[in-house]
Each structure stands twice: as C-alpha cells, then as structure tokens.
Amino acid sequence: MTVTDLQGLAERAGRELETASAQDVLRWAIGTFGDAFVITCSMGDGLLAALSASVAPGVDVLFLDTGYHFAETIGTRDAVGQVYDVNIRTMLPLLTVAQQDAEHGPRLHDRDPNACCAIRKVEPLARGLAPYTAWASGVRRDESPTRADAGVVEWDAKRSMVKVNPIATWTQADVDAYLQANGVLVNPLTYDGYPSIGCAPCTRRVAPGEDPRSGRWAGTAKTECGLHV
Ligand code: SF4
Description:
alpha/beta; Rossmann fold; binds iron/sulfur cluster
C-alpha cells in the first residue's frame, strides 16, 4: 500500500469509526494491519493492553524505558505483561543515563527537557515504531488543548504511519469506570497524587481537583514530550 493509500485509509477510518467503541477501533486496527500494528503504553495503567487482549491475543505493546521511571511504573509494566495476553517490547535509549550525563552534563532534564526527551523518548519511539505501519496510543481529547483534535484514527504525517487513538473520545470518568468495572491493573502512583505519570524528575504530585497533567514538567511551558504532537 502506498503512503497516499494509507493516508486515505486513515482519514476514512477516522470518519467511519468516530462513534465506534474502543474495542471496535482496535478490532479494525488489528484486522487491517495484523503484526504491523503496535500499541504504545506509558504504564499509567493497563487499559489499552486489557482492551486489546479482549479483542485479540498477543498484540505488541511498546514501552519506552527512559531510565528515569518510577519503580512503580517498571513494576506496572512487568505486571501488565504477566496479566494480559500482550507482547511487551521495551525500548531503551541509545545512551544510558550515565552516558548522557557524561556527554551532555548531569540533569539535562532540568536544563533542556526537550533535548532529554528527544534522546530518551522521541528517538527510541521512532526506532521502536520503524517495523510497523500503524500505532496506537491512549491519547484522549479531554486531556489537554493540544490533544483536543485527536482522531480515533488519523494520519501521522510526521511518521507516515496510521495513528489509532481508541479512547480519544473517552473522558476521565469513562476511564475510571472501565478500570473499576474490569479490575484493570493501575500504576499504584495513581492513588498517591500522580494522575499523569511520566519520568520521576519531571513529574510531581498534583492536588485533588488540579489539572491532572499539571504535574508534568511543572514550572515550565513544556506540556508534551514530543511523542503525540
Ligand atoms: Fe528526560 Fe524528563 Fe523527558 Fe523523561 S520526561 S525524557 S527525564 S526531560
């Protein structure tokens, strides 16, 4: 299929699946792309893994191990791999934290978080996605203004890939209800003041009622790591 064909397919599916359930969106993606479809997961919870396992066994799930994750996030990844019928693929940056410190100086995340994210998230994601045609994320429209236009299926022009956001139309209340009703694995930090979990140096607790993503890169203008926008 040419890039133009893929783009047309993504745009058409985005329109046709706008009101479909998350499972039906995943069913379409797995049926259309097979082994060339991968889910990305930051291990805030096992929601996408649980949803995909309910549709088809053994879907690839990409996890970016930045070297700066909370221990609870690594534990959640291990538990998700044990509990759900998915194939976890962990991607590592090309530089260890020690190598990055030696090359760029310590605490790059404080001085230039975009450069740190480029090394530890953006490049590993690009490398991890290279074998695939379509990828899925847990991006939701209600999370932030930068995500308000996310399509259920859309064309990722930056990567020339089909991007699938099965829960784009879900609200936080929808997520909480599904997690509870289905006993889905959740990162324990979620119950400890971290509704949005990233790397430890760049994530702080938020107060009850505060914007869930305000704990990410707090005190800076940065709101995204560069993976989804
Ligand atoms: Fe670095 Fe922070 Fe980005 Fe993690 S979130 S890769 S520590 S800048």
